[in-house]
């Protein structure tokens, strides 16, 4: 039986005073504003959120905290304010002070260093520093698991994609914070690690995983932190949609707060809502109503970041809710007890009115400086150094030039560079800056200014530095690359800033084509440094030397320079599953896998395809709906294909089928399809087929990479993602076999219907004319040379084979070309085909449309083309016109890169038809193969 609630001091009989303890509010400015003073004095506000906009320096922050506490004390508050802050390190710090507050690596950087003891030390040091300023509540640790690492904005703020690892580091951070006397806030329950973003700021990001799936992965760190004594939890504002759990906003749902968090995970600490000012929440529900819903759901503190009008609306909403008996007083006082219990752990009036301040920070400075250096040195990870380019002093003479290429990005909030944005410098010019040791003038991105200067000092030689943008590789870059003896390229979240990825791949291609005077081929040394997300090129083995720093604060870049020039040997490693040896797990049952025999098995394969389609739920599309056995057989001279079956030798029936292709042009081994009779699933048939496929592909001479999903034949472009439950099942199945689904690449087919009544969007033709390219349509092998040379600028699997099929079929396929008017060089191409073409046999979605249709396939735009989107839209627009002229009523745009921005295609009349996740990895990944 639960005991009676603890009796409260009569001072809390004053309902307004009690209500004030249920809010946390922020304000703009580095000094006390009239609004925040009013909220404390007249509305009894109990908690304050400080951000980087409030914290000018350690000394000013200490003064501000004292003034806030003094106002509360003088207004008769029974207990001090809880003053909270985000101080996650890396790129997320609210207090920055070059003298008194040290910088430490991000959560993922600490995890890369591989020590939970280090995590504890860093967390304790961080908490000591902010506590000295008068802060008593830290918004951390971040407990999210990155189950879809490539596309999540959290990035390095969390320890990685392994639930147990995130949990271990999260608990270590929590214990370190508590050791220094401040209370903790876990975030962002029930996990921001696999949100699906719908586009508009008014669309709420959504979690579609079931409770069972969340329990096995995302909830593990939260559960463990609760068991180890987490003080408070922030519940996010995301939506949730799965069987048995639907919520528009998690923090407003009693299913999530009272049910999942309180009852299922047994959390009895303070629950804080997401900020109710977020656009989607305030727009959909309103702040007053949202406050009532949050408190009724079980939130103890409602967060409102800075708008005074919203803050007043929230106070009014809570009071109205209580007066109208929409909120019980028991609910209010239960929350008050939790808040007071938390405050008793971290503050008292003696402590609040006498913060240690600068004097204490001065005593911490020497040991914390040493800790910061040790943490950063331990986090730097050399993922690959195939040609042993490190240290640079081994391959560069003093008189040779080193080129540094950095992207134009905003500096991190924790960076000193963010403090000097007002300095006059021309950051938009790609013109280079060069330093000898004595030089002090640099152009390019400010945040990397010290990196270039430090590199020049360290090597006692000349460093050229210039920036790059979405305009790609310009002539000035080409000249500098030719001139330099080695190149260092910096990327920062290239997966979300695709121009960085394209630029880096283009420079890599240039470096691979450098020649000495004697004509002997010699690759130019290239080092790529990812200074934020480590996933930029983690799985791209074509980047031979790859280093990760996890943030680009000055301290991180200082450690990077030491690694580049051999001052110490880096020991960091990529955290999570990405760095672990991926192994095929042996099947529970080993089935006899035979090579597919077209004469023997074709009819049985058609029967199996029908069974799979019939076993597909009614609301779900089968990728095999228009496929036949012929759809898998390419007979292409430059593609080696091997297909496998598990069969009943007595009845000749097929129980499972797997198709594999080796594209010699790119060294890519592909699993193009793998499916099993629905009546015989979970018997390890799929495992047996998969193991045989991998072993066969590994024997191919020149194999460099593996891929799930194929452009040719275009049946399964990857793991189907059209249905969330099936998507999760398939991602989990392939992950258990060793594929890293966290680094998937979204791919989709798109369709434009009603083509005969379609007209191009207004203004698009004019935009196309302004792109400065000439377009033509060609047919046949006579035009093959320049086209095949052009597509070599892309290393995507199956491109060359698609183009060769099209060039060999001039009656039913054509190529639209975009050329530069000055020299006629190709800058873009795309393939056109119709239902009579040989190519269409391998693209079943065209038949799926059930009407006269044509297709557009495999666009290739030269790297570095400034008007990339305009040129791509132009090629597609001209293709649509041609298909319409052939009396077709639908146009299929197949195998499109889902990382792109499809607003332009939507405006042209296209909609997404099918979604997939293409997964690829280095062939070296598959080294541990179970016996057959």
From TrEMBL:
SUPFAM superfamilies: (Trans)glycosidases (SSF51445), Acyl-CoA N-acyltransferases (Nat) (SSF55729). Keywords: Glycoprotein, Glycosidase, Hydrolase. CDD domains: NAT_SF. Belongs to the glycosyl hydrolase 3 family. This is Glycoside hydrolase. Residues 638-708 form the N-acetyltransferase domain. InterPro entries: Acyl_CoA_acyltransferase (IPR016181), GH (IPR017853), Glyco_hydro_3_C_sf (IPR036881), Glyco_hydro_3_N (IPR001764), Glyco_hydro_3_N_sf (IPR036962), GNAT_dom (IPR000182), NagZ_Beta-hexosaminidase (IPR050226). The keyword Glycoprotein applies. GO terms for biological process: carbohydrate metabolic process; peptidoglycan turnover.
């Amino acid at each position: 039986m639960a005991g009676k609630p603890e009796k409260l001091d009569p001072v809390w009989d004053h309902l307004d005073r009690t209500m004030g303890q249920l809010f946390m509010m922020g304000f703009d400015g580095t000094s006390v504003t009239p609004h925040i003073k009013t909220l404390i004095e007249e509305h009894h506000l109990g908690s304050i959120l400080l951000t980087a906009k409030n914290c000018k320096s350690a000394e000013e922050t200490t003064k501000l905290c004292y003034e806030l506490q003094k106002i509360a004390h003088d207004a008769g508050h029974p207990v001090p304010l809880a003053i909270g802050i985000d101080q996650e390190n890396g790129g997320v710090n609210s207090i920055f002070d070059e003298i008194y507050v040290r910088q430490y690596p991000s959560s993922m950087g600490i995890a890369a260093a591989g020590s939970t003891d280090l995590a504890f030390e860093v967390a304790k040091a961080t908490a000591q520093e902010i506590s000295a300023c008068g802060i008593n509540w830290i918004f951390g640790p971040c407990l999210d698991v990155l189950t879809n690492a490539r596309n999540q904005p959290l990035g390095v703020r969390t320890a990685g994609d392994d639930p147990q690892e995130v949990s271990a580091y999260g608990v270590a951070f929590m214990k370190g914070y508590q050791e220094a006397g401040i209370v903790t806030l876990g975030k962002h329950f029930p996990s921001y690690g696999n949100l699906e973003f719908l586009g508009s700021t008014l669309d709420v990001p959504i979690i579609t995983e079931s409770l069972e799936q969340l329990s096995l992965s995302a909830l593990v760190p939260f559960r463990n932190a609760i068991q180890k004594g987490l003080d408070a939890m922030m519940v996010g504002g995301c939506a949730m949609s799965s069987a048995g759990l639907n919520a528009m906003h998690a923090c407003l749902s009693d299913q999530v707060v009272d049910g999942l968090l309180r009852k299922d995970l047994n959390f009895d600490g303070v629950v804080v809502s997401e900020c109710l000012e977020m656009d989607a929440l305030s727009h959909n529900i309103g702040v007053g109503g949202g406050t009532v819903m949050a408190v009724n759901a079980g939130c103890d503190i409602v967060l409102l970041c800075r708008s005074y009008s919203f803050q007043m609306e929230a106070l009014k909403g809570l009071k109205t809710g209580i007066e109208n008996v929409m909120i019980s007083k028991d609910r209010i006082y239960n929350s008050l007890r939790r808040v007071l219990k938390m405050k008793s752990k971290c503050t008292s009036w003696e402590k609040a009115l006498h913060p240690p301040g600068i004097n204490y920070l001065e005593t911490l400075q020497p040991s914390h400086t040493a800790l910061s250096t040790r943490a950063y040195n331990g986090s730097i990870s050399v993922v690959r150094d195939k040609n042993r380019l490190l240290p640079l002093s081994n391959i560069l003479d003093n008189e040779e030039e080193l080129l540094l290429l950095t992207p134009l990005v905003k500096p991190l909030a924790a960076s000193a560079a963010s403090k000097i944005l007002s300095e006059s410098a021309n950051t938009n010019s790609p013109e280079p800056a060069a330093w000898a040791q004595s030089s002090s003038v640099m152009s390019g991105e400010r945040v990397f200014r010290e990196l270039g200067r430090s590199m020049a000092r360290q090597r006692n030689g000349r460093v050229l530095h210039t920036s790059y943008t979405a305009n790609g590789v310009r002539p000035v870059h080409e000249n500098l690359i030719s001139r330099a003896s080695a190149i260092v390229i910096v990327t920062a979240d290239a997966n979300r800033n695709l121009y960085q990825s394209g630029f880096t791949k283009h420079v890599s291609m240039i470096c691979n084509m450098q020649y000495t005077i004697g004509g002997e081929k010699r690759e130019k040394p290239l080092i790529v440094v990812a200074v934020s997300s480590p996933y930029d090129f983690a799985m791209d083995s074509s980047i031979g030397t790859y280093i990760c720093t996890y943030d680009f604060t000055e301290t991180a870049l200082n450690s990077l320079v030491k690694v580049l020039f051999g001052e110490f040997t880096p020991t960091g490693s990529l955290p999570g599953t990405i760095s672990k040896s991926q192994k095929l797990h042996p099947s529970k049952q080993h089935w006899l896998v035979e090579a597919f025999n077209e004469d023997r098995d074709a009819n049985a394969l058609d029967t199996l395809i029908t069974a799979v389609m019939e076993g597909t739920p009614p609301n779900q599309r089968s990728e095999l709906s228009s496929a036949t056995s012929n759809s898998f057989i390419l007979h292409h001279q430059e593609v080696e294909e091997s297909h496998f079956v598990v069969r009943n030798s007595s009845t000749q029936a097929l129980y499972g089928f797997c198709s594999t292709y080796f594209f010699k042009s790119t060294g890519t081994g592909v699993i193009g399809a793998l499916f099993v009779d629905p009546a015989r699933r979970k018997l390890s048939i799929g495992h047996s087929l998969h193991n045989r496929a991998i072993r066969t592909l590994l024997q191919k001479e020149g194999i460099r990479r593996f891929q799930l999903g194929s452009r040719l034949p275009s049946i399964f472009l990857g793991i189907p993602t059209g249905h969330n439950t099936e998507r999760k099942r398939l991602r989990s199945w392939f992950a258990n076999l060793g594929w890293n689904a966290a680094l998937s690449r979204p791919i989709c087919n798109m369709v434009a219907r009603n083509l005969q009544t379609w007209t191009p969007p207004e203004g698009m033709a004019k935009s196309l004319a302004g792109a400065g390219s000439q377009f033509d349509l060609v047919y046949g092998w006579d035009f093959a040379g320049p086209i095949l040379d052009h597509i070599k600028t892309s290393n995507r699997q199956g491109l060359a084979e698609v183009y060769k099929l099209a060039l060999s079929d001039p009656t039913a396929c054509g190529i639209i070309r975009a050329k530069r008017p000055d020299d006629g060089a190709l800058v873009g191409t795309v393939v056109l085909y119709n239902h009579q073409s040989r190519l269409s046999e391998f693209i079943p979605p065209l038949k799926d449309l059930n009407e006269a249709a044509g297709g557009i396939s495999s666009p290739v735009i030269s790297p570095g083309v400034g008007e990339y989107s305009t040129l791509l839209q132009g090629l597609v627009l001209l293709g649509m016109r041609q298909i319409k002229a052939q009396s077709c009523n639908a146009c299929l745009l197949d195998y499109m890169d889902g990382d792109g921005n499809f607003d332009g295609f939507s405006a042209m009349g296209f909609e997404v038809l099918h979604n997939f996740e293409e997964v690829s990895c280095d062939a070296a990944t598959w080294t541990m193969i179970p016996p057959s």
